[in-house]
Amino acid sequence: MSEGFVYILTNEAMPGFVKIGLTQQDDVADRVKQLDTTSVPMPFEVHFAARVPDCRKLERTLHFVFGENRTRKNREFFKINPDLAKAIIELVAIAPVEYSDEEQDIDAKERAEIEQTRTRREVRTFKSLNVPVGAQLTFTKDDAITCTVVSDRKVLFEGQIMSATAAALAVVRQMGYDWKTVNGMEYWAYKGVKLSSLGEGQPDFEADEEADSAIMPSGPGPGSGVLP
């Protein structure tokens, strides 16, 4: 077996695309820096990385599972929700690995630009997506789980009014995943279409003070299954 690291990289300038790669050295941060060229408007960042027992086998499995979503056959880029790959890696991970902005060579100005771009994209009004108040949204991983749109930015979930992102994170936590944040646009669908797909080409909107970043306290440990 080839113990090493498997990582998921994202770039806010390329929403929806992720890079899945491996390294047998603890040099994931260096891999991020290598991708930061003048042809890329924003730096890449580590969405998730972990030390695993057999990095080559795991990377091969991930590339096989998400093969139909691969951008080009000779590239490690996939058009997927990065949390799906993360859930698979967590099943076999020896330990997750985190990297600071300094290690990834992301300065304060770049971090501010990344977060601003992420917030503008993730926080849109339901009106801009042509989703009316009163509409029922279904969870993309289990259509038995629903929430109801109650305003331009909020939904009613389990008797509480919150952002779609907070509701999605609550469901993910109930499934046993100890994640700090998710993109709600990837987890709720209207009439069978993900909100993120409805939002393609739509204008961005400023976030309110509650900012739908939905960072919540840590919950239970990772679940024993993979998000379907």
Automatic annotation (TrEMBL):
Residues 12-92 form the Bacteriophage T5 Orf172 DNA-binding domain. Pfam families: MUG113 (PF13455). It comes from the Bacteria. This is Bacteriophage T5 Orf172 DNA-binding domain-containing protein. Residues 201-228 are annotated as: Disordered. Residues 203-212 have a biased composition (Acidic residues).
